[in-house]
Amino acid sequence: MSTKNLRHQLLSATKPGRVDLLFDYLRTHGDKHYEEEVTQMQHAVQCAALATRSQQPATLVAAALFHDIGHMLADDPVEANHPTLKDDQHEAIAVAYLKDIFPEAVLQPIRLHVAAKRYMCTLEPEYFDQLSEASQKSFRLQGGPMSEQEIDDFEQHAFHKAAVKLRGWDDQAKDVNIEHLEINAYRSSVLESLC
Ligand SMILES: [Fe+2]
């Protein structure tokens, strides 16, 4: 399915149909690695599992599951598959596709998860050291440390704390020793989160 078709189909589908479309899209496009050792699907599901384990609302579980779908939806697969070469703006692409499908409580943590990395790296220099190599490289392309003004702006955002939480799971959800987690375990959270 092309990305344009996906958006069109999402808008015209029922809620259960939207979950099916999104899960099928992740299953079909999530087998790539994007410079991490886990696949995008493993990363997405591990991230949702971490959100669920910390008893977060369904909207944040859904945000965790779909936070990197913009890598798959990016127009240029070369850029999207090598985020350390060029910033693919995947967080903005995801929000553009998922707008009107999910509420702000899902969209905004996704939109802010890259800014949250810059925020954390700026406030806690040791945070940068524990990032994966790919994430350290893309940090520089994504703008590097925040200015004081950028920190203030970020903290003004209603969803900035949710974005920092999502960022924490994002960094952890790269465990090659976790064998298989089933995406269907998150079906009810996604269904509940839809607009
Ligand atoms: Fe991620």
What is the topology?
Elements: H1 3-12, H2 15-29, H3 40-53, H4 58-66, H5 69-73, H6 77-81, H7 90-98, H8 104-123, H9 125-129, H10 133-141, H11 148-156, H12 160-172, H13 187-193
Helix pairs in contact: 1-2, 3-4, 3-12, 4-8, 4-13, 7-8, 8-12
Fe (ii) ion binds next to loops.
Please characterize this protein's 3D structure:
The chain has 195 residues and is mostly helical. The protein has a single domain (3-193), classed as Orthogonal Bundle (Hypothetical protein af1432), CATH 1.10.3210.10. It is built from 13 helices and no strands. Helix 1 runs antiparallel to helix 2, helix 4 packs across helix 13 (187-193) and helix 8 (104-123) crosses helix 12. The longest helix is centred in the middle third of the chain and has 20 residues, at 104-123. The chain is globular. The two termini are 23 Å apart. The site of fe (ii) ion has 4 residues, from loops.
List keywords for this structure.
13 helices; Hypothetical protein af1432; globular; binds fe (ii) ion; mainly alpha; 195 residues
Q: CATH superfamily name?
A: Hypothetical protein af1432
Distinct ligands: fe (ii) ion
Task: Give the CATH topology.
Answer: Hypothetical protein af1432
Q: Can you give the helix content as a percent range?
A: 55-70%
Strand content: under 5%
Straight-line distance between termini: 23 Å
Distinct helical segment count? 13
Arithmetic mean of pLDDT = 91
Anisotropy-based shape? globular
Uncertain residue segments:
none
Protein name: HD domain-containing protein
Domain HD: 43-117
